[in-house]
Design goal:
The structure holds two protein chains of two kinds.
Chain A (H helix, E strand, L loop, with lengths): L1 E5 L9 H9 L6 H5 L9 E4 L4 E4 L8 H5 L5 E4 L2 E4 L9 H5 L6 E2 L5 E2 L13 H4 L6 E5 L6
Antiparallel strand pairs in A: 1-8, 2-3, 4-5, 6-7
Chain B lengths: L2 E5 L3 H11 L6 E5 L11 H7 L14 H4 L2 E4 L4 E5 L4 E4 L4 E3 L2 E4 L3 E3 L13 E2 L4 H10 L5 E5 L3 H11 L4 E6 L14 H10 L3 E4 L3 E5 L2 E4 L4 E3 L2 E4 L3 E3 L2 H5 L8 E2 L11 E3 L4 E5 L4 E3 L4 H15 L12 E6 L2 E7 L3 E7 L4 E7 L2 E8 L6 H8 L9 H6 L8 H9 L3
Parallel strand pairs in B: 1-2, 1-7, 2-3, 7-19, 9-16, 10-11, 10-16, 11-12, 18-20
Antiparallel strand pairs in B: 4-5, 5-6, 8-17, 13-14, 14-15, 20-21, 22-23, 23-26, 24-25, 25-26
Helix pairs in contact in B: 1-8, 2-4, 2-5
Classes of the chains: A alpha+beta, B alpha/beta.
């Protein structure tokens, strides 16, 4: 399946992916209205130091520990993508406890927020990849590990 | 067509169905549960009382899960005998049920010491099943004085769930600190202060000696008047059925990494089992939901002729009280990092060059990176641990690790 992949050699550390993510999932049609003066809860985050930067978001693991561990059943698989029914989430953060990549965090309401590949927000493709100025983030098919 | 029977309809049982169906779409699956409810995460019952979820949303894999997977479910039926040689079960209805493969997902039961004067206490409850929560919901109103014995996970989550429903909630525990199985003397006081600030009355280092009607006489000599009593002292694996059938049982039903018991054709998963704790290097009770789920699935795959192992078992827990998050994992060996502030704490433990455990209270951001270090037994000298211990991120893992994890399918 298509996933979001990161080439850190090309990452400029501009954080645009975070803004595009927050905007894409805001439900607003105007970027300024969506983001200005607000605490943002992007589902992708840029890490690094002075030399290296790269973005981290859900890897949509083939056998996701978060889905197995979720106490409410909010986290689930939809054709390979790890998705969350936020109305079921009780905010226990067991997903944060088990995600090896640090890719899940609580949103403003305490329920977990994570990348859902922009599958259900009307974008059609992940906004982080679409807006990455240096193609450090791409949305494509890469070899699945045989398991 | 193979006949599978799963005893228990909670997380291990449901995950076992998922494991079987990932290999065998046809086989006949029967789930037997002594409860009226199934397919729900037990830790949700406190959130139910708190109003953060409801009976519909509590369904772990959706209301149509069993139907969708062609599973026959027998509710409020228990198994009275397991005959591994004849490959059949005797049910509480008197019926016999033959099987090719069976999985014991019988969970655990709450235990209660013999308190003097306990028997006449009418409104007393345990807090491990949805039925318990529903009964408590009925028994408690805005004037009710609730006394909970046990300040572990179960007792404190029950207290949180009841706070807004009850007149008062008192929690006592013989241990000097709250959550004594998970927190140490540095971290626990932060939680205790927070619980008291949120309206709970704690009586630590003190417990009930005897009951005199609706009064509890404490070890300290204090008297606690109550209307409703909740006993949350601890749970024990439900292993009697397996033991009677001749399976090897220690504290829990002993299983190997394929979730096989010592009896042919008999698997076990979840809270009823005792399995290898890789952070301790010895078998233990790993009775938390994520393990029940992973073990149940592993058992199901193997029952159906596939091949799966559960070999990264550790205890791990994420819990919150009135907005304060607490995570704990693994085994507390030698402390290698300690950070304590007014608002929270972080403690990391390591032995033989690998992380074995941690406690986080307050800031739990990206804690899974620590959990992963324990589960993968990552040599700490292969990463820049001095950076990871301050702030978990993928940076100290190096470029090739990131290229593999962020640039490839995992």
């Amino acid at each position: 399946m298509k996933r979001v992949y990161v080439n850190e050699e090309w990452c400029l550390g501009c954080h645009l992916c975070e803004y595009n993510c927050a905007f894409a999932n805001s439900g607003e049609s105007d970027m300024v209205k969506a983001l200005k003066g607000k605490t943002l809860y992007p589902r992708i985050h840029v890490e690094g130091d002075e030399q290296i930067t790269y973005a981290v978001s859900c890897r949509h693991c083939a056998d996701p520990l978060c889905v197995r561990s979720c106490i409410s059943g909010a986290l689930h698989l939809e054709e390979g993508a790890v998705c969350i029914s936020r109305d079921k989430c009780v905010g226990c953060l067991t997903c944060v406890l088990v995600c090896p990549y640090g890719a899940i965090a609580p949103g403003p309401d305490g329920a977990a927020l994570k990348c859902e590949l922009c599958l259900s927000n009307g974008r059609g493709e992940p906004a982080c990849a679409a807006g990455c100025p240096n193609r450090a983030i791409v949305y494509e098919e890469r070899g699945e590990e045989s398991r | 067509m193979k006949k599978y029977v799963i005893i228990g309809g909670s997380i291990a049982g449901v995950s076992c169905v998922e494991g079987i169906r990932s290999i065998d779409p046809e086989g006949e699956i029967t789930v037997i549960t002594s409860e009226a409810h199934s397919n729900y995460g037990r830790p949700l019952i406190s959130y139910y009382l708190e109003g953060k979820t409801d009976l519909v949303r509590m369904s772990w894999r959706g209301a149509d899960f069993f139907e969708r997977n062609g599973v026959t479910v027998l509710h409020e039926v228990s198994v009275t005998k397991l005959d591994p040689e004849g490959q059949k079960l005797t049910l509480s209805t008197g019926a016999a049920l033959p099987y090719d493969e069976v999985c014991l997902c019988t969970g655990s039961y709450p235990f209660s010491p013999k308190f003097e004067g306990l028997e006449p206490v009418e409104k007393r409850f345990f807090f491990t099943t949805l039925a318990d929560a529903l009964a408590l919901e009925k028994a408690v109103d805005r004037l009710t004085k609730v006394l909970i014995i046990g300040a572990g996970f179960i007792g404190l989550k029950c207290a949180e769930g009841l706070r807004d429903r009850a007149g008062s909630v008192t929690v006592c525990d013989l241990a000097k600190h709250a959550m004594s199985a998970n927190l140490d003397a540095d971290c626990a006081p932060i939680l205790e202060k927070h619980l008291e600030a949120n309206g709970l009355r704690l009586m630590l280092g003190d417990t009930v000696v005897r009951f005199e009607g609706q009064r509890a006489v404490m070890q300290s000599g204090k008297i606690v008047d109550f209307d409703v009593l909740v006993i949350a002292i601890g749970t024990r694996p439900n292993s009697a059925l397996a033991a009677q059938a001749g399976a090897k049982v220690n504290r829990g039903i002993l299983v190997d990494e394929a979730m096989r018991t010592s009896l042919p054709g008999v698997f076990a998963a979840g809270d009823c089992t005792e399995s290898m704790d890789i952070s301790a290097g010895e078998p233990g009770l790993l009775a938390v939901l994520p393990n029940a789920s992973l073990q149940g699935r592993c058992a199901g795959v193997n029952m159906a002729g596939g091949s799966d192992t559960f070999r990264k078992g550790i205890k791990m827990n994420s819990i919150g009280f009135f907005g304060l998050h607490i995570m704990s994992a693994g085994t507390y060996t030698e402390p290698v990092y300690t950070e304590i502030t007014e608002q929270g704490c972080k403690k990391l433990f390591a032995r033989d060059g690998v992380l074995t455990g941690f406690i986080l209270l307050g800031d739990v951001h990206r804690a899974g990176i620590y959990t992963s270090l324990i589960r993968e037994k990552t040599p700490l000298d292969s990463i820049r641990f001095d950076e990871v211990k301050l702030d978990p991120s993928l940076l100290p893992f190096g470029r090739s690790y990131r290229a593999k994890k962020l640039g490839g399918a995992v």
